[in-house]
Amino acid sequence: DIQMTQSPSTLSASVGDRVTITCRASQSISTWLAWYQQKPGKAPKVLIYMASTLQGGVPSRFSGSGSGTEFTLTISSLQPDDFATYYCHQYESYPLTFGGGTKVEIK
Amino acid sequence: EVQLVESGGGLVQPGGSLRLSCAASGFTFSDHYMDWVRQAPGKGLEWVGRIRNKANSYSTEYAASVKGRFSISRDDSTNSLYLQMNSLKTDDTAVYFCTRWDVRVSKIDYWGQGTLVTVSS
User: Fold this and answer.
1) Which positions in chain A touch B115 (Cβ < 8 Å)?
2) Partner A contacted by B36 (CB < 8 A)
3) Which residues contact A57 (CB under 8 A, 6 or more apart)?
4) CB contact, 8 Å: A52 with chain B?
5) Looking at the partner chain, which of B61, B105, B109 has a beta carbon nearest the beta carbon of A94?
6) Is the dihedral of CA A101, A105, B4, B5 positive or negative?
7) Is the per-residue pLDDT at B68 higher than 90?
8) What torsion, rounded to 10 degrees, do the Cα atoms B113, A5, B66, A84 define?
9) Where residue A107 falls among pLDDT bands split at 50, 70, 90?
10) DSSP string spanning B29-87?
11) Which among B45, B61, B105 is the nearest to A44, CB-wise?
């Protein structure tokens, strides 16, 4: 199985900060990676797919990059609505797997 | 508008069975692969399994943790997705989400609101 390791697990930041979350795959997944945002009590929402393609309707402050085993999700200027938990998700091979999540908290 | 509405969750004893349903609307259900994803209380997301469409023989894939105990099926005539869960364990306690997989661009693009399954004596 492909293991997805996210870091950090928790991140404290202020509104306006630039935030970067890293996801590492245990083997190459090319660009078969998505990023999801989840708020408490809600279903996740896709932000980025194919490692760097922004989902329609998602603000342009979100961006994704990487290929192979190293990926990043960047929020260029953190907004109040962005405080949530973020998950990476590989779909290169079965079983599909998620990272452990990164909780972005208010500093 | 795409909607996915899960039902069938509840309290079940270890070793018991439960069948979850997902009612889909707002899109051509028969065209899409469908996945189940779960989330234990306070924990991260775990992919449970997938069922492909008729063009791909309704074939299925499962996570190792549920293989042989869980079974995914679908009824395209009623736009319904199912998850049959047998031999339930306490570790299966989670919110179960029905999700739609977009084959064209490779992503889970829609999620239901989830249904809670609690396995406890």
Assistant:
1) none
2) no
3) none
4) no
5) B61
6) positive
7) yes
8) -10
9) confident
10) GGGSEEEEEEE-TTS-EEEEEEE--GGGTT-EEE-TTTBTTEEEEEETTTTEEEEEE-S
11) B45
Token pair recorded at residue A40:
């408490």
Find, among A69, A73, A84, A7, the residue nearest to A34 by Cα.
Answer: A73
The type of residue at B17 is S
Q: A38 with A85: CB under 8 angstroms?
A: yes
**Which of A91, A92, A103 is the best substitution to test chain B (most B C-beta atoms within 10 A)?**
A91
Within 8 A by CB and 6+ apart from B95, the residues are: B9, B38, B39, B41, B114, B115, B116, B117
* A49-86 pLDDT tens trace: 999 999 999 999 999 999 999 999 999 999 999 999 99
Q: The tokens of A63 are what?
A: 């961006």
Q: How far apart are CA A73 and CA A58, in angstroms?
A: 13
3-class secondary structure, A82: helix
Q: For residue A55, what are the CA distances in angstroms to A48, A58, A73, A85?
A: 6, 6, 13, 17
Angle, CA A98 vertex, CA A97 and CA A102 arms, to 5°: 165
- Pair B41, B92: CB distance under 8 Å: no
Chain A within 8 Å of B50 (Cβ-Cβ)?
A: yes
